Amino acid sequence: MREYLRRAALWAKAYNVEAAWPFFDIAEHVDAETTTPPDIADELEELLEELAPASLRTTCRGAVRWAVLREAHSDLPTDLPDPYEPLLVMYERGGGYHLEEYLDLNGVMIPLRDLESNASAAPFLTLDPATLDALDAEET
User: Fold this and answer.
1) β 108-111/98-99 pair status
2) Are 9 and 119 within 8 A, CB to CB?
3) What secondary structure does DSSP assign to 42-86, as a single string?
4) Which DSSP category does 121 fall into?
5) Which of 54, 48, 62 is nearest to 7 (CA)?
6) Distance linking the first and last C-alpha atoms of the chain
7) 66 CB-near residues (< 8 Å, 6+ apart)
8) CA–CA separation, 61 vs 43, rounded Å?
9) Is the pTM of this model over 0.85?
10) Considering only Cβ atoms within 10 Å of each terminal Cβ, which end of the chain, N or C, has fewer?
């Protein structure tokens, strides 16, 4: 989650949409004309129907739209990391969250902080499953 917050902050700053941070559809701000194909969008909406919080649905839609954008544009900034990769890894590993004053990652609370703090945070260098498994084992 922290790496997603950092990456999303970098994209928000790059496109001057700091007010939309942290859980937003980044592709919308990069190229509003790029849309998810209707058949995929319909299937996605069926999957997202029961999910909460709303920000989770927003980021899932954004990640799918981001994949469409990446295929359509070879001119995306190369100095910015893939914004959704860390969040998708967290979701794939069974992670979820609730957003209040803190981000509650199913029992682990992390402060949300502000955009600047997240943009300047040290990057998490790998999302390799073996590394993440080792970190998870340290916490138990």
Assistant:
1) unpaired
2) yes
3) HHHHHHHTT--SHHHHHHHHHHHHHHHHHHH-S-S-TTS--SSHH
4) S
5) 62
6) 18
7) 26, 27, 82, 83, 84
8) 11
9) no
10) C
Nearest to 55 by CA among 13, 5, 92: 5
C-alpha angle 1-135-6 in degrees, rounded to nearest 5: 25
Tell me how far CA of residue 123 lies from CA of 4, 5, 7, 126, in angstroms.
10, 10, 8, 9
Q: Locate 103 and state its tokens.
A: 């981000």
65 CB burial (10 A radius; 0-12, 13-18, 19+) = buried
Cis peptide leading into residue 22 (ω within 30°) = yes
- Estimate to the nearest angstrom the gap between the alpha carbon of 119 and the chain centroid: 14
One pLDDT digit (tens) per residue for the chain, 140 residues: 999 999 999 999 999 999 999 999 999 999 999 999 999 999 999 999 887 778 889 999 999 999 999 999 888 899 999 999 999 999 898 888 877 767 888 778 888 888 898 889 888 888 888 888 887 787 65
Alpha-carbon torsion, ordered 51, 64, 3, 96, to 10 deg? 10
